Amino acid sequence: MKNKSLIPFILLPVWFVLYNYLQPITDYFVDSFLGMEKGSHLTESIRFFIFEVPKVMLLLTLIVFVVGIIRSYFSPERTRKILGGKKLFVGNVLASLLGIVTPFCSCSAIPLFLGFVESGVPLGVTFSFLIAAPMINEVALVLLFGLFGWKTALLYMSTGLIIAIISGYIIGRLKLERYVEEWVYQVKAGRLDVEEEKNPFSERITAGTGAVKEIVSKVWIYVVIGIGVGAGIHGYVPENFMAGLMGKSAWWSVPVAVIIGIPMYSNAAGIIPIVQALLEKGASLGTVLAFMMSVIGLSLPETIILRKVLKLRLIFTFVGIVAMGIIIVGYIFNFIF
Asked: Distance between CA 91 and CA 217 in Å, rounded?
């Protein structure tokens, strides 16, 4: 077990060498090995694809491994203990921060919601967690960092947290508990006084490795598809077209981007390479990030699953408040940048 736990650290220098030499390897492969014509639409699309796929996968593997270790300290029971009994605004802030590092996917929405409600976590605090967890996940942050730099990643995380905190706070203040399905309050979740296991660090390394296997195996196809779409946009879509459609001059671009994004289903791995290509073609940062936030943070599968525990009025309120927050953030980004 101990020898296996050392393998990720032995491979770390290999990771850095591969990552630092990706660009010259790609250029040699496209220009010399394939002998493609420089500057053509097809060449630049292929160059984009060949460079971005391994780059994103390398970043994804490293960060998912690190976050997998962090997540081993936050079981669902411990998360519910931390959030239980907290006052509204403090609970919203804490829930949003926990949403970044705790496991969450659409299929987890109902059991998490039930566990939180049964544990006495306020409704608004629960929604802050449900908003932050999918929107500000390690996949989104690592891809933004790798493609656009730490400033854009930090800005995205900050605005995502603000949306999660404020949206949850507003939902809590509106006292919408009556729009939760009655059967939810009759469910008895498991006891929360289970003693937390103190696992050795070698087992947490194993948890990080397991997270890489589980998450990367699920999202790699979205990475390839997303980068493939982004490569097509990068090589063939005229700059003036995207600048006119999603540029700052079009005042309606932000709400339209959010409306288009809400019913779509994708994740960060699939949508961020498309975001990169859109920005390179002249789309404005605020409009593109608003589109991305609506796709990731208001995914259609999650809202459909939540219908089993929430009445329609609460679902529409949830979607409306979050969408409005995303639109405001989009306009602010367009104004500043």
From this structure: 34
- The mean pLDDT of 219-224, rounded to a whole number, is 77
Rounded-to-integer distance, Cα 187 and Cα 277, Å: 47
Residue type, 171: I
Among 163, 168, 179, residue whose Cα is nearest residue 122: 168
Cα–Cα dist 115/47, whole Å: 47
C-alpha span between 23 and 212 (Å, rounded): 24
Q: Which distant-in-sequence residues (6+ apart) come within 8 Å of 157 by Cβ?
A: 100, 136, 141
C-alpha 57/C-alpha 38 separation (Å) is 26
d(CA 71, CA 276): 28
Nearest partner of 124 among 80, 175, 77, judged by Cα:
175
Q: Each residue of 243-257: pLDDT tens digit?
A: 666 766 677 888 988
- Note if the pTM is more than 0.85: no
- Cβ-proximal residues to 54 (8 Å cutoff; 6+ apart), any chain: 18, 22
Please state, in angstroms and as integers, the Cα–Cα distance from residue 95 to each residue in 23, 79, 89, 175, 191, following that order. 40, 9, 10, 18, 20
Q: Which two tokens stand for residue 75?
A: 């079981």
| Better pLDDT: 112 or 25 | 25
Q: CB of 93 within 8 A of CB of 166?
A: no
CA separation, residue 100 to residues 97, 115, 136, 185, 242 (Å):
6, 18, 6, 27, 32
Q: Can you say whether residue 81 is alpha, beta or left, with left for phi > 0 and alpha for psi between -120 and 50 degrees? A: alpha
Residue 43 contacts residue 30 (beta carbons within 8 Å): yes
> Quick check: helix, strand or coil at residue 310?
strand
